[in-house]
């Protein structure tokens, strides 16, 4: 398993669960100094960072790009894959496609979290899930063409009314026409929705393609009550080889949060 820390470059989501903010070179330098293997990026758009510049920074600091987030599509533009308006859904697919192409240059998958949307009033859940499947099938085909996966994230009930648990996510993925969509196991969301984090991980098995590393209160691991030893054991049992990425609040500050994350990663995974 490989360590990863999040960097967000979208000012309007500054209160979100990301360790580092704004200054990409400084953030990457700090991540490298602490020994992280990679960074996970949240940018306003696919062209917010020139790929050559990002490649140069990654080479300079010896970091991989683990994944790219698509949440700005909803935060900045109100786009989701389940909007009742087909024109909005089409724009959502286009936004994610652009982010996928950006990430694919670094062999980094895109993450679909908030852009999955909700079954809004007046729309049946089954219809919203059908729209979601339609979008993921199109995007999964593009992921296949670019030889990357696409990461789908079940969120807790306060953020979506579509898919909240890994087991439901596995069933949904099995119904898709594409094989290139995998699950994101976010420990914070799972703490709200799963009966047992460890059992859910074991059950989802190879469908898990990314892990968000945060405690029960979304502080860095060690700041809440998640039984991380059991979670780590389950990830080892399913032979998970991907990134353990710190999507957590920068508590008490970004530098301390990053240090605590690396301490926890070494404690449980090395």
UniProtKB/TrEMBL annotation:
Pfam families found in the cross-reference section: AP_endonuc_2
Domain annotation Xylose isomerase-like TIM barrel: ranges: 29-266
UniProt lineage: Bacteria, Pseudomonadati, Bacteroidota, Cytophagia, Cytophagales
Residue ranges that the Swiss-Prot or TrEMBL entry lists as coiled coil: none
Sample GO molecular function, one term: isomerase activity
Keywords, in A-Z order: Isomerase
Tree of life domain: Bacteria
Name of the protein this chain belongs to: Sugar phosphate isomerase/epimerase
InterPro entries (alphabetical): IolE/XylAMocC-like (IPR050312), Xyl_isomerase-like_sf (IPR036237), Xyl_isomerase-like_TIM-brl (IPR013022)
């Amino acid at each position: 398993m490989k360590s990863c820390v999040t960097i967000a470059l979208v000012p309007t989501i500054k209160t979100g669960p990301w360790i580092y903010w704004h200054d990409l070179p400084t953030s990457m330098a700090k991540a490298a100094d602490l020994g992280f293997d990679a960074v996970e990026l949240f940018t306003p758009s696919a062209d917010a960072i020139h790929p050559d510049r990002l490649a140069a920074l990654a080479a300079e600091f010896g970091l991989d790009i683990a994944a790219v987030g698509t949440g700005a599509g909803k935060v900045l533009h109100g786009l989701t894959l389940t909007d009742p308006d087909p024109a909005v859904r089409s724009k959502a697919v286009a936004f994610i496609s652009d982010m996928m192409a950006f990430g694919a240059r670094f062999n980094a998958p895109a993450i679909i979290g908030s852009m999955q949307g909700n079954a809004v009033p007046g729309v049946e859940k089954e219809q919203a899930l059908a729209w979601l499947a339609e979008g993921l099938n199109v995007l999964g085909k593009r992921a296949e063409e670019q030889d990357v996966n696409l990461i789908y994230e079940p969120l807790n009930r306060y953020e979506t009314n579509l898919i909240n648990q890994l087991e439901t996510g596995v069933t949904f993925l099995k119904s898709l026409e594409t094989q290139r969509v995998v699950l994101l196991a976010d420990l914070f969301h799972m703490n709200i929705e799963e009966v047992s984090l460890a059992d859910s991980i074991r059950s989802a098995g190879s469908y898990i393609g990314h892990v968000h590393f945060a405690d029960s209160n979304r502080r860095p691991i060690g700041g809440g009550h998640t039984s991380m030893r059991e979670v780590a054991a389950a990830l080892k049992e399913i032979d998970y080889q991907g990134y353990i990425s710190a999507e957590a609040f920068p508590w008490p500050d970004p530098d301390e949060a990053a240090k605590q994350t690396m301490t926890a990663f070494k404690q449980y995974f090395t």
